[in-house]
Amino acid sequence: MNKGRVLVYPPGHFCSKCGNTGYKQNDPSHPCRKDWEKYSKPFTAAFRLAPDQEPAANFQKPLRAFALSPPPPRGALCRNCGGRGNVVEFMSFFGDEETCPVCRGAGRVF
Q1: Positions in the chain whose pLDDT score sits under 50
Q2: Close Cβ partners of 89 (under 8 Å, ≥ 6 residues apart)
Q3: Which residues of 33-70 are buried (b: 16+ CB within 10 A; e: fewer)?
Q4: Cα–Cα dist 8/28, whole Å
Q5: Which end of the chain has less Cβ packing within 10 Å, N or C?
Q6: What is the pTM assigned to this prediction?
Q7: Which uninterrupted H or E stretch holds 76?
Q8: Residue 15, exposed/middle/buried by CB under 10 A (0-12, 13-18, 19+)?
Q9: What residues have CB less than 8 Å from 83, skipping those under 6 apart?
């Protein structure tokens, strides 16, 4: 959908630039101008097809969802624990671990 309009392609039509999504490279900030000028219709209301009913036209495909990558970690890596957030207890026979006293378990110092 774009500015209250939806794309309705003729049967058998396929746009190699946008893959019938209406947006180049699945990016909503780059509309496929030719398709919007030629095939857009005003959106009035949603409708439902019966399970055995084929659509009379080739409707606009939804954009693919994409996952956002997490932001890069902030701060410097803790030199005391090496970024793990815990350290081996001092003078421990069994190698018990405790929370790093420098970064308090974050693994990074700010």
Answers
A1: none
A2: 95, 96, 97, 98
A3: eebbeebbeeeeeeeeeeeeeeeeebebeeeeeeeeee
A4: 17
A5: C
A6: 0.46
A7: strand 76-77
A8: middle
A9: 77, 107, 108
Query: CA distances (Å), 52 to each of 48, 49, 55, 74, 86, in order?
Result: 12, 8, 10, 54, 60
pLDDT in the model for residue 93:
67
**Among 74, 63, 79, which residue's Cα sits nearest to residue 31?**
63
Q: What per-residue confidence (pLDDT) applies to 52? A: 58
Residue 100 has a CB neighbour count (10 Å cut-off) of: 20
CA separation for the pair 63, 54 (Å, rounded)? 21
For 77, the enclosing helix (H) or strand (E) is strand 76-77
Q: What's the confidence (pLDDT) of residue 58?
A: 73
Amino acid letter for position 99: T
Q: Is residue 12 exposed (0-12), middle (13-18) or buried (19+ Cβ within 10 Å)? A: exposed
